[in-house]
Amino acid sequence: MTKSFYGTVLSSPLMLGTAQYPSPDILRDAVKAAQPGVVTVSLRRESAGERAGQAFWDLIQELGVPVLPNTAGCHTVKEAVTTAHMAREVFGTDWVKLEVIGELDTLQPDVFGLVEAARILTDDGFKVFPYTTEDLVVAERLLAVGCEVLMPWGAPIGSGKGLNNVFGLRALRAHFPDVPLVVDAGIGVPSHAAQALELGYDAVLINTAVAKAGEPAVMAEAFRFAVQAGLLARQADPMEERDMAVPSTPVVGKAMLA
Amino acid sequence: MQIVVNDEVHEVSARTLAALIDELGYGGARIATAMDGSFVPVPYRARTVLRDGARIEIVAPMQGG
To answer: A115-127: per-residue pLDDT in tens?
Structure first.
């Protein structure tokens, strides 16, 4: 069953980041090819002369895809909360992808700061999409402070390694069957995205895998099909794995030729 | 009065955050502001009085993952 994200059913289980593309035109082409349910966006310092932010805003408006602002690069609760407030005003949405980064090599979340920031923001009316790990206890805490969506990592941001801990992701899915779950970070190729959907995840968030592909728009289209394939496969109820072979061709009636 | 905007020092005559935004040429831009690490919403800019050495952050939409 398709789950809603804070009451909104997305048009696609693909969430697409807008960073690192070679040019705005290539970003535009990639978004059109991916047909994502949301695009993620951010905030950076603006120069009065260049007005780069205005040009990007115009592009986002033209694309007409709902936006999910992030707090990327924030390492403290205060930074993340202040950034979320600024994003709410600029983008006109109370959705926020909450990142509180705890470690530089892996960019893994500071889950203690994450829970605290999530509590402050949900109390203030934000609809928080927390970038977290697959840790069940942290997930419980995030839900307890008001999050209604969880976004565990597949692998470190930008690594392209796919789903590093399938067991952990499967456990999270089984533990919270009614919570919308999104694999965020680490997906490198469309098969990783399909795998996440096959595991029962409700969406995937991808950026580097598309932006850093040789042909971003072609890769974007590949991801569009991959998430649809994964979603259909999940709905079709996949067969159970077995350790031993079982013949698929009926043995009964086989000619005795030995 | 000297104000630090996005880590750059500016000598300005503005006395409020709203006036500073106009003086620096951001008028009409889709931006959000913070002073000394705290968010200042649009309705509060006109009544936010600057002090010498205040640290202002001015941000705008940007690509993100």
So the answer is: 999 999 999 999 9
- Count of domains for chain B: 1
Domain locations along chain A = 9-236
pLDDT in tens, A207-223: 999 999 999 999 999 99
pLDDT 10s digits, A86-114: 999 999 999 999 999 999 999 999 999 99
pTM of the model: 0.92
Known catalytic residue: A212?
Answer: no
A61 at B interface, C-beta within 8 A:
no
CATH number of the structural domain spanning residue B43: 3.10.20.30
Please indicate if the annotation marks A162 as binding a ligand: no
Contacts of A258 (CB under 8 A, 6+ apart): none
Any domain includes B65: no
Domain that holds residue B44: 2-59
The total of other beta-carbon atoms located within 10 Å of residue A203's CB is: 28
ipTM above 0.85, yes or no: yes
Domain A9-236 falls under CATH 3.10.290.10: no
Q: Residue A180: which residues within 8 A CB-CB, separation 6 or more?
A: A3, A4, A5, A148, A149, A150, A202, A203
Residue B46 lies in a domain: yes
Given a cut of 80, whether residue A229 has pLDDT beyond it is: yes
| A&B contacts, CB < 8 Å | 109
User: Is A229 annotated as ligand-binding?
Assistant: no
Residue of A97, A127, A212, A254 marked catalytic: A97
